[in-house]
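does this look right to u?? inosinic acid version
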Amino acid sequence: MAYDAQHNDLEVLLDTETLARRVRELGAQISADYRGRPLRLVGILKGAWVFLADLIRHLDLELTVDFLCIASYANHSHPTGAVKITKDLDQSIEGLDVLVVEDILDTGDTFEYLRGLLEAHKPRSLKVVTLLDKPSRRVRPVQADYVGFTIADVFVVGYGLDYAQQYRNLPDVRVLRKSQ
Ligand code: IMP
Ligand code: MG
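got this back:
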C-alpha cells in the first residue's frame, strides 16, 4: 500500500506540557539517584535525541554524553528483530556509571542486544531510561529502570520518533494511523 504522509491520521497522545512535566520529573529522580557520581549518558540514535536533549537540561549532575546509532525497522508490521550498529561509541565506558537513553521499549530486541554489547565493555553500572514503554509487545525479559510513559500497543511518532524517517519534528507524541 502506498504511503502518503498527507493522508495519515495523527492523534495527539502526549502533549508538549505532559512531556515536559514528565521529563522534568525523570531528571529530578535521576539526579537524586546518581548524586555525587559522574554519569555517562548513551543516547540511542536516532529516536532518542530529542528526549535526551530535553532530559540533560534537567540533570543536575556531572555528566558526559555519547551516542550509539543503530538501524531499526521502519515499519511496525514488519519488525526484523535484527539490530545493526551503524555508529559505535566514541569513548570507552569501562568502569563508568552508564545510563542508556532510549525512545521506546517495544519487543525488547533492541535493548536486549544493546545490553549484551554494552555489558561486554564492563561499565561500573548499566541502567536504561526510556521515554515510552509498550510492555504488551515485549518478547524479551527486559525492563527499563526509568520509564516516562507506559503506553498501549499503538504506533507512535513525534518528539524524535519516526515512521519511515518522517515525523521526528512533531513537538508531541501522536498515534499514527495509516490511511487505507
Ligand atoms: P524493540 O527492539 O522492539 O524494543 O523496538 C525498539 C525500537 O523500535 C525503537 O527504538 C524504535 O526505533 C522502534 N519502535 C518501536 N515502536 C515504535 C513506535 O511506536 N513508533 C516509532 N518507533 C517505534
Ligand atoms: Mg529507534
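The chain has a mean pLDDT of 91. idk if thats expected tbh
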